[in-house]
Amino acid sequence: MTGNTRHSLIDDAQGIAYGSLMASFGIVILTHLGFVTGQTAGLAVLISYATGWGFGPVFFAINLPFYWLGYKRMGPVFVAKTFVAVGLLSVVSAILPQYVSFATLHPAVGAVLFGFVSGSALLALFRHGASLGGVGIVALYLQDKTGFKAGWTQILFDICVFAIALTLRDAVTVAWSALGALVLNLVITMNHRRDRYIAT
To answer: How confident is the model at residue 20 (pLDDT cuts 50, 70, 90)?
Structure first.
């Protein structure tokens, strides 16, 4: 696609729906195996494990403070799309386990599947002007204000999340979780290229 291509409302709706549903499926895989991940979703998973609260409500609540920064950094359309995506993920991730279960799922396979599924979900959301909120918004805001690279903010946050995870999960589970996070980030890194795909 070229920079002159614009997504229609229907394009955006299906892209956000796809991204939110696939992200929800990724969360089902993640929590079935007791894994953790990075970013805001990882923090919500840790809180869910520690308290017994459902992932969906925790994830939705954690994202609420970030919308103002998103509005200032990205504008109202981005915030509206992100709000919808976060809301869908929060609801669908709570419902989906009633319809999807795994008799057998090896941790290695689950980690790779989680990375692929969640990576494709985020790519869809990014390409339709949305995100899953949270730390990414803060990272971009800090980059604008201080010059500190957004990627470094996200990496430092993820290090903290995985360090906390070691207090709630065994080292082997955290290691498998790290594999899933690595695959996810590789999918994003290798496929999210603005010079190859630019559309709004």
So the answer is: very high
d(CA 176, CA 111): 6
- In the numeric block, which tokens belong to residue 68? 């103002």
Average pLDDT over residues 68-79: 83
Tokens matching residue 44 = 């919500």
Domain that holds residue 15: 9-191
Rounded distance between C-alpha atoms, residue 22 and residue 54, angstroms: 18
What is the Cα–Cα distance from 151 to 50, expressed in whole angstroms? 27
Q: Mean per-residue pLDDT for 60-76?
A: 85
pTM over 0.70? The answer is yes
In a domain, 167, yes or no: yes
- CA 22/CA 5 separation, integer angstroms: 25
Residue 133 CA to residue 85 CA, distance in Å, equals: 9
Is 181 domain-assigned?
yes
Q: Provide the 8-state DSSP code for 98.
A: G
